[in-house]
Amino acid sequence: MNFAASPVLALTLPTWRSRLLLYVFIACFAVLLGRAVYLQGMNNDFLQAKGESRYSRVIEIPADRGRILDRNGEALAISTPVKSIWAIPGEVHPSDRQLARLAALLEMPPREIEKRLADTGRDFVFLKRQIPPEVAERVAGLHVPGLFQNREYRRYYPNGEVTAHVLGFTGADDIGQEGVELALQDGLAGKPGSRRVIKDRLGQTVEDVESIKAAQDGHDLALALDTRIQNLAFSQLKAAVAQHRAKAGGVVVLDVDTGELLALANYPTYNPNNRSKLTGAQLRNRTLTDTFEPGSTLKPFTVALALEGGRVRADSVIQIAPGSLSIGAATIHDAHFERSLTVAQVIQKSSNVGAAKIALALSAESMWEMFRDVGFGAAPGLGFPGEAAGKVRPYRSWRPIEQATMSYGHGISVSLVQLARAYSVFARDGDLVPLSLLRVDIPPAGHRVITPRTAAAVRAMLEMAVNRSGTAPRAQIMGYRVAGKTGTAHKQENGAYAAEKYVSSFVGFAPASRPRLVIAVMIDEPSTGRYYGGTVAAPVFAQVMAGALRVLDVPLDGPMQPIELPPEGEEVKESV
Amino acid sequence: MTRLNLLLVAVLTACALGLVTSQHQARKLFGELELEQERSRQLGVEYGQLQLEASTWAVHARVERIASRQLHMRVPDAKRLQIARPKEAAK
Predict the structure, then answer these.
(1) Is the Cβ of B74 closer than 8 Å to some Cβ of chain A?
(2) What is the pTM of this model?
(3) What are phi and psi of A190, to 5 degrees?
(4) In this predicted structure, what is the pLDDT of residue B91?
(5) Euclidean distance between CA atoms A437 and B13, whole angstroms
(6) Which of A124, A253, A113 is nearest to A551 (CA)?
(7) What is the mean pLDDT of residues B56-82?
(8) Which of A296, A350, A504, A505 is catalytic?
(9) Of B26, B78, B82, which is closest to A562 when you measure between CB atoms?
(10) Predicted complex ipTM
């Protein structure tokens, strides 16, 4: 039987079976083709992303925080990169030698490191933050698996405690927490950017694909502060607080023409580069955030108002005898008295009775308006965190005795910066200057409060207060004419005046012929028995003013004669 | 026809090799660029640190201390001071 005759071959299968198989195969290929088209052409995002994740990376571009400079471009705050060391606790198993080296480099006890690494429930633990880059490099040299580093910033303040209250400081994440750092956070902070790159197998960047977001460095900021004057103010203040064993103190230096704050010194202070032991008392910028009853430094405003209304002239005589004035149940006293004083002498000798008599002839509303016009009772608008508005009660609730005491600065509270600014009215021919923490290139326009004539008249009276027979002979400076007013006030405690606690102050400006600077000094609770503004605060004023005028090269306008002081203890005593 | 094809193959190969070389060059140059940029960042950091150091040395309290203690400088008192005014101001 040959093959061809095999009966098996004679068997014929129905043709539909082979057709069916063919169609099934075609259908299978069609499904595959369809899927391929779907994945490649229509729904390709997922695979594209998967592919890219093998080679493409997004890298963050760090941005620096802007520097803070003083008005002459000297750096007051600079950020520099540091490293932080962090670990994945479950993955770090250092040998004893590595642990000892690590502990030595990080300046931490080895047991502390072990304790942190033992917390395996967490995926992330900081071992130490803000360490210098050189130390971080040596830590990396230990090659401990599971130990990583992050780039961070740390801010340094070269002037330390001198500028601490103005600048404030930043936290561990380089975000402002106090002072200018907080107030101007938006301008100073940089905006980190990012870019997409292609990395090879070894992790090296081989190609820049696109820039997603450009990094934006923070802006440098030029403050109005003059480091030389700030330093002078701070060292004089520190010495005065120590000499009079005072609780605290502040000095404000204001540029009359531009309203720039050239110095804002506070004591007690702190070192912003090492903030481990900080108390609230050290931290506060008292010149801006604390208010006090200013005392006699407000008398010139009462007198200016009376002059403005034409009620008195500088040489009008006011009767002071018998040296006290009773209003209702209360009596106002003068520390020393004369039978009668002219209006100018009321300022020169700082007579409470005289000021009260002048005030009682004025309407409460006009006095209230005067106080509001020179900026009391409203925050100075610097944008500084916590700047105080002070308190000026609405005039409708004033009783006559309150109106009388307010004329010499009691029953009203102001901050030292407000007080310095208010005196710009006298220094600037009657208009109030807007303040600025930042450098100002174009002098701003003031806001008119009193006429230039009144301002000139008050200036003359304030100059008298500083001469030999005034309350503040110690505010004189050789070579310059000075004008200013002392203030001495009992401190308020629990709603009553404390008998033995005083705030001594002095506000003044120079050169009197063409004022350039206003300086306000406040010493809180001097406790060596001397508490008059003329003895405690005026010498600080004189030292700071003399130095500042020299620094600014202001031409002399007074005689070059040694200053004459009345014998110790025989100065004109101020009424408290 | 065959010769043309062979020529085209040769040209194609040359182009392909050229592409590979230039891509390689580009990556190498990019690597260098990256290094230089990193260096510029490092120098920026160093500049900041040096500025900081300069400010720290120039702190007024320190200058004053050195002036008064080491160099024995002081502000002259009133008796030894003479003010010279420019001619115009004197008139």
Answers:
(1) no
(2) 0.82
(3) -85, 160
(4) 47
(5) 70
(6) A253
(7) 85
(8) A296
(9) B78
(10) 0.73
